[in-house]
Amino acid sequence: MQPFSFHRPTSLDETFSLLEQHGDEARMIAGGTALVVMMKQSLFTAEHLISLDRVPGLSGIRGEADGLHIGALTRHRELEMSPVVRSAAPFLAEVYSHVATVRIRNQATVGGGLAHADPNQDPPAAFITLEARVKLVSRNGERLVPVAELFSDYYETVIQPGELLTEVIVPPVAPGTRTAYLKFLPRTEDDYATVAVGATAQMQGGVVQKLKVALIAAAPTALSATVVEDQLVGKSVTPAAIRQAAEAVEAIVDPLDDFRGSSSYKRDMAVVFTRRALERVLQDGA
Amino acid sequence: MSDRVMVSARINGESTDFLADERDSLLEALRERIGLTGAKEGCNNGNCGACAVMLDGRLVNSCCVLALEVEDAEIVTVEGIAAEDGLHPVQQAFLEEAALQCGICTPGFIVASKALLDINPDPSEHEIRFWLAGNLCRCTGYDKIIRAVQRAGEMMRNGSHA
Q1: Which of A89, A189, A272, B122 has the most CB atoms around it within 10 Å of its CB?
Q2: How many contacts, defined by CB atoms under 8 Å, are there between A and B?
Q3: Does the pLDDT value for residue A285 go beyond 60?
Q4: DSSP B29
Q5: How many angstroms away from the CA of A96 is the closest CA of chain B?
Q6: Residue A67 pLDDT > 50, yes or no?
Q7: Contacts of residue A36 in chain B, CB cutoff 8 Å?
Q8: ipTM, two decimals
Q9: Interchain contact A43–B (C-beta under 8 A)
Q10: What average pLDDT does the structure give for chain B?
Q11: In this model, does residue B104 exceed pLDDT 60?
Q12: B92: distance to nearest CA of chain A, Å?
C-alpha cells in the first residue's frame, strides 16, 4: 500500500475544508471494505485519506413523512436488521441481506457502497426500483439525485469534487407493491452475481399501474431498465407481453466477460432473469 | 511520510496502546504490532474470513479495516474467547467434532461461530451455513464444522462451560 496522510475530521465543516485543501489528492473512507482492499492492491492510491468515522450526524435511519432517511454511514447490517426498514420497505432489507457476507455487511456502509459504484453491488437494485434519491452536500448547498442517475461509469458517479453523499431517501412504498430480487449465483452464496434483477410493481385488475426494473452486474453501471417498463405500464399482462418486454434488456446490457460467465451468456441470462422477475411481480395472484 | 501513529483500543478486555503505520490493516497491527497472531491472513481481501475478529460487537474481517480506525474501539480476537479455567464451548466442540485439520481457518471459524451463537443460541443448519458463508476451509468439507457449531450451541444452552 502506498503511504498517505490520515485525517479524522469531527464535523462536516472540517471535512469540507480538508476536501478543499487537498482536492484530487484526497479521498474519503467510510467502512473501508472496498477501499482498503483496492489500496492494498494499488488499484487506488490517495495522498490524503479522510475518515468519516467521527463526523456526527451521518449514521442512523429515520422514518419521516417523505420516507426513510438512511444516513450514509449506516452499516449494511444495521439497515438489513432495522425494524423501521423491515416495516416500511422490507424489499430494501431483503436486497441488503444478499450483499457478500455478514462480515462485510457488519462493516460496509450504505453511502460508501453507493459512492464506490461497483456495478456488481446489490443495493442499487432496490434503491432504483424504490425510486430512492441520494443527498449530495457541499459547502455551497445540497442537491438530490435519483440513485438511477448516480452512476456514470464503471466505479464512477456524478458526485462532484467537494461533495459528500450524506443520506439516501427512500420514498414511502405504496401498499400492495409487489417486489422481487433475483440474483443468479452459479458459484457461491457470497459471490457477486452473474446477473441480478430487481423489480417493483403495482397492479390493478390485471393492468400494470407502475413498474420499475433494475439490472445489476449487467453493464458498467447498475441499470434502470425503463425500456422494459415502457412496454408494460398501462397494459394487461400476458405471458407473451412479459417475454417480449424482457427481451428489450438485450439492447441495454453490456456485460463483461469474466469467470462468472461470458458476455454473451450474461446477456442471455439478463433476459431470462428479467422475465422471471417480471413474472414474479406481475403474474402470481395479480 | 509514513509516520507511526499511536492507537489506543481495548483488546480482549485490556487497554492496549500500539504504534501503527497508517497503512496497517487491523489484522497486521494485531499480528505484527501487538503479537496477537491468532487471527490469520488468508486471502487478505475480505473473502476467506480467517482474520475475523469482533470490532465493537460486530463480526468483521480485520484485513479490511484500517488499524487507525479502531481508536477507542473494543476488539475481541480468538485469544480473548477462552475463559481462564478452560476452553469456550465453541473451542471444545471444534476439538470434539474434529472440526479442523490444518487449522489456518479455525480462529476465524471460532470467532464467527461464537458471534452467531451469542445472538442465536439454537441456529438451524441452514442458518449456520449462511452465517459461515465467508469463512473458507479447504480441508474439512464443512460438515464437521457445522456439527461442532450445533454441539457448541447445545453445550451453551445446557450451561456447560466445557
Answers
A1: A89
A2: 83
A3: no
A4: I
A5: 14
A6: yes
A7: 25, 63-66
A8: 0.91
A9: no
A10: 95
A11: yes
A12: 24
